[in-house]
Amino acid sequence: MATEPEVGSEVRGLAPEGEAESTAQGDPAATDPAGRDRGTARDVLEALRGSVPDHLLLTDPTQLATYECDGLAAYRVTPALVVLADTAEHVTATVRACAEHRVPFVARGSGTGLSGGALPHAEGVLVVTSRLRTLHEVRRADQRAVVDPGVINLQVSKAANPQGYYFAPDPSSQQICSIGGNVAENSGGAHCLKYGFTSGHVLALDLVTPTGEQVSIGTEAPDAPGYDLVGAFVGSEGTLGVATRAVVRLTRLPEEVRTVLAGFASTDQAGAATSAIIAAGIVPAAIEIMDALAIEAAEKAVSCGYPAGAGAVLVVELDGAAAEVGHEYAAVEQICRQEGCFEFRMATDAAERAEIWKGRKSAFAAVGRISPDYIVQDGVVPRTSLPAVLRRMGEISAEKGLRVANVFHAGDGNLHPLVLFDASEEGATERAEEVSGLILDLCIEHGGSITGEHGVGSDKARYMPRMFTDDDLDTMQMVRCAFDPDGIANPGKIYPTPRLCGERPRIRQGAHPLTGDGVEVF
Amino acid sequence: MTLLQTLSPLCEVVEAGPGDAVDGVAPALVARPRSTEETSALMRACHEAGAAVVVRGHGSKLRWGRPPERLDVVLDTTGLDALVEHSRGDLIATAGAGMPLARLRELLAEGGHQLVVDDLAADAGGSTLGGAVATNLAGPRRMWTGAIRDLVIGVRLVRADGTVAKAGGKVVKNVAGYDLSKLVTGSFGTLAVITEVTVRLHPLPEADRWVGTSVEPDRLAAVLEEVVHTQQVAHAVEARVRPGVSPAVVTLLSGTEAGATARAETLRARLADLGCEAQVHDVAPPWWGVLLHPGQRGGTEPPAGSRPVLLKVTARLSGIPELLAEVTRLEGTANGSAGAGVVYVSLPPDEQAGGKVEALRRAATRLGGSAVVLDAPPEVKDTLDTWGPVPAIDLMRRVKTEFDPTRVLAPGRFVGGL
After folding, report:
1. Rounded to the nearest 10 degrees, how much is the dihedral formed by the CA atoms of B291, B292, B297, B299?
2. Across the interface, do A228 and B185 touch by the CB < 8 Å criterion?
3. Total-model pTM
4. In 10 A of CB A369, how many CB atoms?
5. Cα(B245)–Cα(B265) distance, rounded to whole angstroms?
6. CA proximity to B333, closest of B292, B302, B304, B370
């Protein structure tokens, strides 16, 4: 089940340090913040007997181990109970039982997340929504699809294509990641430069709140009256409840698509071309850059035939009405040649387009060909800071003696530096972690973000205080307290030191009881 | 110590005048902080004093929603009007909440950019940025970029108790932490005071073309189907109905000079194939992106002293023709974003208004949307259910309670009396 589209099993040979350890160890807390008794996963299991068929309730250690990690395999925690939901009622029953007994739960879709957002809780319940795969409706006339959370991202587009529509958010894992996961992570992708992230494409959700209530938020029409709870829920990484159904926006297929591949001597040149394209008032569907090391890896893995000797390749996709795309194409070609590109190719049909994208989309996995281990980062910087950040990253790489390959969504400044190392080498893992952290600091220094699309999850909670003040984080926690007063939905994710609900802001009371436990339940 | 004495040292504070009433409810004071820090000190003091606060920009939409159930201080944001940053290479801008949209438009245009928000409420000098965010203001071009909720990438907030917090940032791609920007967008000032907003910008197009046609009611669905689903990339599709006149449908195509011209011609020809005679214009019709009174023609002044019953009504896209037919049956006037599923309806403020609002609400609900009364004369508004049924109201109440437990921010203005 823990298959990953981009990430091979060799990903991140790191020991689960820090967060993962503290999740699995510590003093057992028998009471919740309000002093009430907390139950165990066994109580949840007993409560579910009868309402969820036995074969969907996994307690066998071997079966449980299948779910010990998501796409970020460095962190592993075996859950106490796995519920394979076959219906929305199974989800509701499970969450309700967890709420009743105040037992932590974690929701999981396809398990492709790259920040450990679906990392299980050792004493908690893992609710798997991947079997909820009914694509209820594609309504061209309304530009909407109604889907279950386990429906695969690409399936929505496949179902809508014959009617001239598609689902715009396209994370690289779109062949396997689920809509429920996209909603939890506010997934992006190469084309969100023009079309925005998942949050712009979800109109309404049915969800089960951490208190066990079934609630519908949003309407299939825009601007539902009241607070934009859909806007708050999308990207909340499973900490505000579990979506059981989504109404999503479909986007009209463009009349014309032109994908361009330009070879440059350096990432500086490719970056300058990117800036010039944006300055010319063009909003491409995507602008991607790969550096020499990433190209080398991709060539070894998929023979994508990128320009030989390129220090960087720029992939630009233009789409829209034919009457505009032709003009934009001419402008992009002129800009690329001015900025010194030595090769400029265009794909006109879907096959040629796929050929250009193959190298880019395989880049993460391909890096495994040139390095035994690597860490993927997901920082964001203002586009105008790209040259400075890339130069500094080069310096850091040289200082620490570790290679860093760069693959990035240049149009929106979202970097995916891959820190390459060999875990079998003494101290290499620690140095790789250090480089990775320095890169995030660099992003924050330049006014950027620690994550553009992978989410905070388990992986980056410790970096949140570098980007946000205690007051900022407390304010976000207020939303969590409104949805999840007992703190049982995906505890320990996103926020490093969750404030207890009902506690006065800014008065901290040590570690959250629910994040410090680790008793064997079965 | 009086409230005036308490607040005076913190920022500019004056006693309120008759023009400062919020939908008929008079405040005691008007405070005009000039920074986030002053706003924080002001809110802390108001919170401690239990003084109810309503935030006001230009006041162009202050009558929308319910009147506040109590009111002590109007927090005037016009002192927070700086353009903090316009990063041309990043297509983002940060400005104070009191920045007028009209002024922002001029400043951004110098760099060839724009914030794609159409100011529907053009009276009182137009909306401020903060007012637009607080009401999730969106006009025709929401079909292109989404509403302002899709363009806000960061906010600086002052909470009810004076705590300063930010969410989001100044990069367009960012999933670190909850998206509080979306939560406060459209919250009518009931969760926090927005002091600064960072928005995503778009390049100003070289050319705009409007393809307009007048259609018989029975052809409306076919015409909308064509322009909404066209691959010519419509940046807005507006429809208009008023008593005794055939519905009009106008489509905006923005782009390069040659591209927009060619696309408009393609669309015109497609409509001709459908038996609809359409014209291509270089300017928008006078009713474009304007909230109208019942029967009012675009480009003319509204009847003096009158206030219509004004509603925002939404429906699934395929339901818009049926919704507009219902407006016609109720002898209302409507214009709005047929391409996005949102129309603004005005009804005469007479004794039939209540029944008509209910009829519209039934139609909207049946068609997957909702009907919200934005404005009405006070005596009529009192008789109407402003917000209608709101699903998940309990969850919203819990959010309000977390952010503003003592209810000092615009109490009673929002859904469910929040």
Report:
1. -40
2. yes
3. 0.93
4. 16
5. 26
6. B292
How many angstroms separate the CA atoms of B110 and B94, rounded?
Answer: 15
Tokens of B74: 């109007």
Give dist(CA A8, CA A362) in Å, integer.
Answer: 11
Choose among A132, A109, A19, A128: nearest CA to A63.
Answer: A128
Shortest Cα distance from A49 to chain B (angstroms)? 29
Position B212 confidence tier, pLDDT thresholds 50, 70, 90: very high
**Which residue in B398, B176, B403 sits closest to A236, CA to CA?**
B176
C-alpha B3/C-alpha B49 separation (Å) is 8
Question: What is the CB-side half-sphere exposure of residue B163 using CA atoms within 13 A?
Answer: 20
What part of B 284-313 touches A (C-beta under 8 Å)? Answer: 312
Residue A83, amino acid: V
Contact call for residues B80 and B98 (beta carbons, < 8 A): yes
**A174 CA to centre of own chain:** 11
Residues paired with residue A153 on neighbouring β-strands, in sequence order: none
Q: A68: phi > 0 → left, psi -120 to 50 → alpha, else beta; which?
A: alpha
Rounded Cα distance, A274 and A513, in Å = 48
Among B residues 200-219, those touching chain A with beta carbons less than 8 Å apart: 202-206
The 8-class DSSP code of residue B132 comes to H
Query: Using an 8 Å Cβ cutoff, are B170 and B152 in contact?
Result: no
Identity of residue B244: G
CA B55 to chain centre: 15
Tell me the sheet residues that pair with A420.
A374
Half-sphere exposure of B1 (CA within 13 A, CB side): 9
Is residue A421 within 8 Å of A434, Cβ to Cβ? no
- A468/B398 CB distance under 8 A: no
Rounded to whole angstroms, how far apart are CA atoms B56 and B21? 11
| Banded pLDDT at A34 (limits 50, 70, 90) | low
Q: Which of B43, B87, B173 to mutate to test the interface with A (most CBs of A within 10 A)?
A: B173
CA distance B228 to A160: 16
| Cβ under 8 Å to A: B residues 372-401 | 372, 387-388, 390-396, 398-401
Over residues B220-241, the pLDDT tens digits come to 999 999 999 999 999 999 999 9
HSE-up of residue B44 (Cα within 13 Å, Cβ side): 11
Q: Give Rg (Cα) of chain B.
A: 22
As a dihedral over the C-alpha atoms of residue A474, residue A480, residue A486, residue A491, rounded to 10 degrees, the angle is -90
Residues 6 or more apart whose CB falls under 8 angstroms from that of A390 comprise A267, A268, A271, A406
Closest CA to A503 of A479, A476, A485: A485
Return d(Cα A183, Cα A199) in angstroms, integer. Answer: 7
Respond yes or no on whether ipTM tops 0.95: yes
B243 at interface of A, judged by CB pairs closer than 8 A:
no
Do the beta carbons of residue A359 and residue A304 sit within 8 Å?
yes
- Comparing CA positions, the residue from B131, B137, B104, B109 lying closest to residue B291 is B137
Q: Chain-centre distance of CA B212, in angstroms?
A: 24
Separation of alpha carbons A467 and A448, rounded Å: 9
Q: How confident is the model at residue A514 (pLDDT cuts 50, 70, 90)?
A: very low
SS3 A408: strand
Residues forming a β-bridge with B209: B253
Q: How many CA atoms lie within 13 A of A294 on its CB side?
A: 28
- Quickly count: other Cβ atoms within 10 Å of residue B269's Cβ: 10
- DSSP bridge partners of A107: A127
Amino acid at B394: D
Q: Residue A443 in contact with residue A380, Cβ under 8 Å?
A: yes
Between CA B98 and CA A387 the distance in angstroms is: 34
Would you say A199 and B182 are in contact if contact means Cβ atoms under 8 Å apart? yes
